[in-house]
Amino acid sequence: MALGERVGHVFRGAAIGVAEAVPGVSGGTIALVTGVYERVIASAGHLVNTVRYAVSDVPRRRGWTRAGQQLRQVHWDVVVPLLIGMLPGLLIAAKLLEPLLEDYPEQTRGLFLGLVLASVLVPVSMVGTPWRGAEVAALVVAGVAAFVLTGLPQASITPHPLVVLVAAAVAVCALVLPGVSGSFLLLTLGLYEPTINAVNDRDLGYLAVFATGMVIGLALFVKLLQWLLEQHRRMTLAVMAGVILGSLRALWPWQSEDRDMYAPGGNVLPVVALFLLGVAVVAVMIVAERRRLRRAARDLTEESYETPRVR
Q: Which parts pass through the membrane (predicted)?
């Protein structure tokens, strides 16, 4: 992989990290838009298999053969740069976006509304045409479910370690599922602020429990999602599109702390301008990714037709 593409994956990782810190925005959606989603899911599946085979084979003295085979199938050239970008993206967003959401809530949500609304074009286009009735129904049902979920009032839960563990396991499912925001789920459970504070204060005890929950959730969920994408690709993408559309409720600029939606009020012009900016940013990302894929396919075709040199 060229150096430029690796650098591009670092920036994609940073964008995913930023998205995960924003309630209502899904890191999985950004991964889908930037073209790395399926490789990330496949790599996560191989990592889960690596751990499973290591735990089952090594104690029985069967060696590391199966675990090693799975480990070699991970797309390390994609995963490592993404992780390098995600951590600073998450830390910077945790530090900077919280005051923006507090001081400029309508404008900030307007920007993210444009980003996420434009992102739905990706799974819709991946389903292809024509859409079958069952796929349309799945989109509608998933959209309604996401709309209801994002309208739930914020809860208040004491951050007991067991609660944090379970919440992290659920939130990491949102990390790999486009349209579902892990931060929003934490906000609904009343754990968003404690988690952000733990990141900013470097509370290693809290973060260790949270990371353990993420590993557990990832191990339980990612294999199911990988199987769905392999066996029921169109239906799964239709559900993803519905979830993204339904989750837009969380990003409606004019709403109360209890998530009651209001008609457009103040700051309409800046909100609309930022909304259009968000749409434009994602449109540019989609066009750039499609051009990159076409260029890669063209280069691969040219290489296949090259005649080996005779020495």
A: 78-97, 109-128, 134-152, 164-192, 204-225, 237-255, 267-288
